[in-house]
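PROTEIN–LIGAND DATA SHEET

This sheet pairs a single protein chain with one bound small molecule, flavin-adenine dinucleotide, given as SMILES. Inputs appear in the order they were entered. The predicted three-dimensional arrangement of chain and ligand is reported afterwards as a token string under its own label.
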Amino acid sequence: MDFIRPTTWTDALGAKAAQPDAVPILGGTDLMVGFNFGEAPPPTLLDLTAVPELSQWHRDDGTIHLGAGVTYSQIIDELGEECPGLAIASRTVGSPQIRNRATVAGNLGTASPAGDAHPPLLATGAVVEAASVRGTRLIDINDFFLGVKRNALAPDELIRSVRIPARPGPQQFAKVGTRNAMVIAVCTVAVALDPSARTVGTGIGSAAPTPRRAPEAEALAADLPWDGGEVDPDLARRFGDAVAAAAAPIDDVRGTAAYRTHALSVLGRRALQWTWSELRGAR
Ligand SMILES: Cc1cc2nc3c(=O)[nH]c(=O)nc-3n(C[C@H](O)[C@H](O)[C@H](O)COP(=O)(O)OP(=O)(O)OC[C@H]3O[C@@H](n4cnc5c(N)ncnc54)[C@H](O)[C@@H]3O)c2cc1C
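PREDICTION REPORTED AS:
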């Protein structure tokens, strides 16, 4: 196996263009597991960890540009205010060792239906910045996941950053697992409120072939008391039920489809109530 370690983004794109079958590696927390379990190694690994710009984030107007190499630990330490939903999700990923290495771009590269970064990205309307020697392409997160572990990247493209709207309002992420830590999700729900636009964004994980939104739950934003007041319990329950209705869960070793449907409705209802309480407290 060849190993390429570019130190500039231009060189990284050039290497990927010259060898589209070269496999990019950041934290390696998905890739190395595969190799250790006997997956055939690729002809070439393209190590992106020596490209300094990738491990940085910056704010441009209302958007956070999250470099592909930014780790979950960085998000937890530095972006709790700007991207609270993603920061909560990041705290649930693996262990401290994993969070110190693993990245959102790697989560997107793998595109697992259970990837914990995906629901908050869907709920906030993030955009993936993909690049190649041909230029830059901005991929709406809604168009990124194509199937189980399949994404919209072309063979010569690399993820450079993820653009996330900086916190327009309270956000939550809730995860059910078979234990409290180091666990692949049984199911997850993310909710993001935008009080100015009077919208509710959603994302669900481990509940369908791809992470997805719950449009019927989002449509209930029109019934929320944006001018003040509690969420009616019946509305919160309908919201949870609409979250669950968006799923297409399966039975697997982590849980049954019926349990996932039930858990999604509970998590959806609670995530709405938690974000709404925070919104009321901030007024
Ligand atoms: C013990 C353990 C616990 C874990 N727990 C969780 C968990 O709780 N939740 C969760 O979601 N995941 C979990 N994971 C999986 C993994 O940590 C995450 O998916 C992580 O986000 C992967 O990031 P990485 O940087 O390590 O990716 P890598 O392993 O480096 O890469 C993953 C994929 O992305 C591709 N890729 C990497 N960089 C780019 C780029 N710039 N452009 C295009 N493609 C790219 C790679 O080629 C590869 O296909 C766990 C893994 C382990 C080993």
